[in-house]
Design brief:
3 helices, mainly beta, 22-stranded antiparallel beta barrel, globular, two-stranded antiparallel ribbon
Length: 611
């Protein structure tokens, strides 16, 4: 399997605790993510990593992009015989998740892969159905003399959700009390009953590389090549409410429907030079053109802006040096000209000791233009129309160090300093729901969810310390992940970047061959916990989260019991999720108004074929 940067790894069919953690929709570890009650819906954050920020202003809708395949997620293959992977997992009622991949070489120089992920889940609550589709095609071609390499991919994906806005205040009380009459979650009342949103995207990408000296098949020899990279991607996001609820304020059109479009074209050309003594150097010119506009546009107030078109030209470079266990990597990207300006500088160094122990340190400086959803937004709802032409660039200074010691574990410390941080918050200048009181009127709960764009004028400091370990004694294995976090913004007591101070996970498992070694069996318990904090609030109209400092969530344990097995190249996964839900109190939530999952049993399988 070859990634975006050209690094390759072999297919791994082992059964480990890490495979248990990645047996999910994203095929990634959920440690810093808290999924909503239905599969394929949003994910709230229990930690942040600003090292992955994109320099190009995006469409926003970050909650919809968690399961979105980016260019860096697509793999290219080189296989001697056809390779197939089948992935299946049950969902949250009336549906399933499946992901199938097949790849083969038509000849030793041309490989292609086709994959399709389909997911549908009805969910336990009213108006909560999720559907997810993603078709991927990739190819990898080398000429016979390996002077020319051509690889690329095409992706078409659709992420759709029915949105209920969370349960109402009355139903929230019924949930927290554990009333037996409401254990059937479909009887709980929700805020939105006919609303839905959808993110669709299509992308074409290819990269070609021609060697003027040397070729791609000769390792550790001097080479010189020129490359060209092209990307064309379109996205559109739709929110629609047939019921025309006033949850987001008054409407200014006859139908409650918003549509925002985003399209980008990238063209890059550059040179790669490799010297066995000096290392690898590359430089490139990168051109981007982006269109951002709204459909069903209505002129609101004194503003009629409906479109942003911008162009950027970057100069980028990278230097990589690797010698006897010492690795040094530095890269930069600088805006030469453009409507928005973004810059990046990154330096990292790694030393590998005996027994694969290593120490790594890195620093990254990002200065990026605001995402376009903060600058311009147009909606059928009166209060969701804005044009902010005075926003400053976000400025991130990021430091990270990692120490891995065999048989002890991995320690990571990161310090992230954020300047001019952009975020959404809730506007409380709205009508409030009245509580019954004989003596006086008390107003507590906003009937409407209105949102405003904010840019912090204070620097935000974010410290994250993480320890990962795995200890094994004979057939018993103990895996731990411990994360401590602290954020602050000056002298203010109201935090902008809210994270739990502690985020913990531990797994105790037993593994052994059974049935005369015909099957490898693994079973155990995973416990997870995070401390209370002001978790971000979900806004289904924007497909994003809001910063809030009124409602704390957390301090509830999540216990899962799992039984996994491996028969030849098939891996079976059976899990009793959150089995303690009815024992430790109904105080578990994924966001304000959105309960977390009740106890349930789910099944999954990953099956590989090599012929």
């Amino acid at each position: 399997m070859i990634d975006y940067e050209g690094k390759s790894v072999s297919v791994d069919t082992s059964l480990t605790i890490k495979k248990e953690y990645t047996n999910n929709l994203l095929r990634k570890d959920y440690f810093e993510l808290l999924p909503f009650v239905n599969m394929g819906h949003a994910f709230n954050k229990l930690g942040y990593d600003f090292f992955e920020e994109n320099l190009i202003p995006q469409i926003g809708k970050k909650s919809k992009h968690t399961s979105y395949f980016k260019s860096e997620d697509i793999k290219y293959y080189n296989v001697p015989t056809p390779f197939t992977e089948l992935f299946f997992r049950t969902t949250m009622e009336q549906g399933q998740l499946s992901d199938a991949l097949i790849t083969l070489n038509l000849n030793p120089n041309f490989n292609f892969a086709i994959a399709y992920r389909g997911m549908r889940s009805q969910g336990k609550y009213v108006n909560q159905r999720s559907n997810n589709e993603a078709f991927r095609y990739s190819f990898n071609y080398n000429s016979k003399n390996y002077k020319y390499n051509f690889k690329g991919h095409y992706v078409s994906q659709n992420i759709g959700n029915n949105e209920n806005g969370g349960v109402t205040e009355q139903s929230l009380s019924q949930f927290e009390l554990g009333d037996p009459e409401f254990k059937e979650r479909s009887v709980l009342n929700v805020r939105l009953k006919r609303a839905n949103n959808e993110l669709k995207g299509k992308r074409s990408f290819f990269k070609q590389n021609y060697f003027l000296k040397g070729n791609s098949n000769l390792k550790n020899q001097n080479s010189l090549s020129v490359f060209h990279e092209f990307l064309n991607e379109t996205k559109f996001y739709i929110y629609e409410d047939i019921q025309k609820s006033d949850y987001f304020g008054p409407l200014v059109s006859e139908e409650a429907k918003d549509q925002v479009n985003w399209a980008i074209i990238q063209n890059s050309i550059g040179v790669n030079y490799y010297n066995s003594k000096l290392g690898k150097i590359n430089g490139a010119l990168e051109y981007y053109k982006t269109d951002y506009f709204f459909k069903n546009f209505l002129e609101v107030g004194n503003t009629s802006n409906n479109l942003i078109v911008y162009k950027q030209l970057f100069l980028s470079g990278n230097y990589l040096f690797d010698w006897k266990g010492f690795n040094f990597d530095t890269s930069f990207k600088k805006t030469i000209t453009g409507d928005y300006r973004s810059d990046l500088l990154e330096i990292s160094a790694k030393i590998i000791f005996k027994q694969k122990n290593y120490f790594e340190i890195g620093v990254k400086k990002i200065n990026k233009a605001p995402d376009l959803n903060f600058i311009l937004y147009r909606s059928a709802y009166e209060n969701y129309n804005w044009y902010n032409d005075n926003l400053n660039n976000e400025d991130f200074t990021l430091l990270s160090s990692t120490l891995f010691i065999n048989k002890i574990g991995k320690f990571n410390v990161s310090f992230q300093k954020l300047k001019n941080y952009l975020y959404y918050s809730q506007n409380f200048n709205v009508p409030l729901e009245q509580e019954d009181d004989d003596e006086e009127e008390v107003f507590l709960y906003p009937r409407q969810l209105l949102t405003v764009v904010n840019q912090s004028d204070q620097k935000i400091d974010y410290l994250k310390i993480r320890y990962d370990s795995n200890f094994r004694y004979r057939k018993i294995e103990l895996s731990n992940t411990i994360q401590y976090q602290k954020s602050g913004n000056g002298d203010s007591e109201i935090l902008i970047l809210n994270v739990p101070e502690w985020n913990l996970r531990t797994s105790l498992s037993y593994s052994s061959f059974v049935f005369k070694k015909a099957m490898y069996l693994q079973f155990g318990i995973t416990g997870q916990y995070f401390s209370k904090f002001f978790m971000n609030k979900y806004n289904p109209l924007l497909g994003s989260f809001l910063v809030q400092n009124r409602y704390e969530i957390g301090d509830f344990p999540r216990l899962d019991f799992f039984v996994n097995g491996k028969i030849k190249k098939a891996r079976l996964f059976l899990k009793y999720e959150h089995f303690n839900s009815s024992l430790t109190g109904y105080n578990f939530f994924s966001s304000e108004g959105y309960p977390y999952r009740d106890a349930m049993i789910r099944f999954g399988i990953v099956w590989n074929f090599f012929e």
